[in-house]
Write a structure and sequence with these properties.
alpha/beta; TIM Barrel; eight-stranded parallel beta barrel; 10 helices; DAHP_synth_1; Phospho-2-dehydro-3-deoxyheptonate aldolase; identical protein binding
Length: 356
């Protein structure tokens, strides 16, 4: 009898499909691929100052209901043409939720909200939603939290985020260097902008690290680096950083680090003091900065759903209110439209001022 020294704390090991097989099961056609490539190009042009529109990443804190997510996407698609001269609308389609302790981890990890953790089903849900967004003509954004799951869906993203809890992680920084989409790095939870600036510098460089192939094999990949990393101001535990003075300091820090003084501002989290109802006021302040001529602000993030507020998961999907968040509280659709129209007006005013 041998002494067991491995897998002591592993209760079960379930297979996942190869990423290539899931791509074959739910493929992106040429029309979807062309749309995603064009959306990424438009996003890059805004980040680089070649397009004076505003990048707006707007949508649910997290996706828990494919049906309401796609209804939100359809509404966003109908709204977009009216604002397209000033805003590039990208839907927030988040499938993974970082947790300080415990709680629902997102659609990929627990698609039925019952604690069973059918990750294979969650990956299929995620891929179907992203494909349908592309077919509708709605660019999609998501936070890249896990180091393995992006192989199953990341090629369908227009924009990716590295969150405040992982921005200092060397593994996430090198992973970002491999991603095909532009990546926003949030300031750390303590408010450190320097951590995000360091991450941008690391991600633009070439890296060599172990990963899994689309065939599910262990491989070592060499990256070329991601040239489209940028800063996202999301506030901190001790207060917001969306005000003009904070934006000016962040822009100066970017310039001193040899980076473009261009940034995105998250209207939620620390910038709203975790009060979802303050997001319109935060956006209004940012809109005023834009209207006054700020060229540093190139994008915003807004947590929004069909129904405002949030709800608790009590008995899986049973009894949940359709179109309302089960994680962070969101503003409702009507408030979202009003915020987007205000932001579009601020871009038009900035544009008119630049021509005067």
């Amino acid at each position: 009898m041998s002494t067991q020294i491995s897998d002591i704390h592993i209760a079960q090991a379930d297979p996942l499909p190869q990423p290539r097989l899931l791509q074959g099961e739910l493929p992106a056609g040429e029309a979807e691929a062309a749309f995603i490539a064009a959306s990424r190009a438009a996003t890059r042009n805004i980040l680089r100052g070649l397009d004076d529109r505003l990048l707006v990443i707007v949508g649910p804190c997290s996706i828990h209901e494919p049906e309401s997510a796609l209804e939100y996407a359809a509404r966003l698609r109908r709204l977009a043409p009216r604002l397209d001269d000033s805003l590039l609308l990208v839907m927030r389609v988040y499938f993974e939720k970082p947790r300080t302790r415990m709680g629902w981890k997102g659609l990929i990890y627990d698609p039925e909200l019952d604690g069973q953790g059918d990750i294979g089903a969650g990956l299929r849900h995620a891929r179907r939603i992203l494909l349908e967004c592309a077919r509708l003509g709605v660019p999609a954004a998501s936070e890249i939290l896990d180091l393995v799951t992006p192989q199953y869906y990341a090629e369908l993203l227009t924009w990716g985020a590295i969150g405040a809890r992982t921005v200092q992680s060397p593994l996430h920084r090198q992973m970002a260097s491999a991603l095909s989409a532009p990546v926003g790095f949030k300031n750390a939870t303590n408010g450190s902008v320097g951590a995000a600036i360091d991450a941008i510098h690391v991600a633009v460089q070439s890296h060599r690290f172990p990963s899994i192939s689309l065939e599910g094999k262990a491989i070592v990949i060499t990256t070329t680096g991601n040239p489209d990393g940028h800063l996202v101001l999301r506030g901190a535990s001790d207060g917001p950083n969306y005000d003009a003075a904070s934006v000016s300091r962040a822009a100066a820090s970017l310039s001193q680090a040899g980076l473009p003084a261009r940034l995105v501002i998250d209207c939620s989290h620390g910038n709203s003091n975790k009060d979802f109802s303050r997001q319109p006021a935060v956006a209004a302040d940012i809109a005023q900065q834009i209207a006054s001529g700020s060229s540093s602000i190139c994008g915003l993030m807004i947590e929004s759903h069909l129904v405002e507020g949030r709800q608790d998961i009590v008995d899986g999907r049973q009894g949940l209110r359709y179109g309302q968040s089960v994680t962070d509280a969101c503003i409702g659709w009507e408030a979202t439209v009003a915020v987007l129209e205000q932001l579009a007006a601020s871009v038009r005013q900035r544009r008119a001022g630049a021509r005067a």
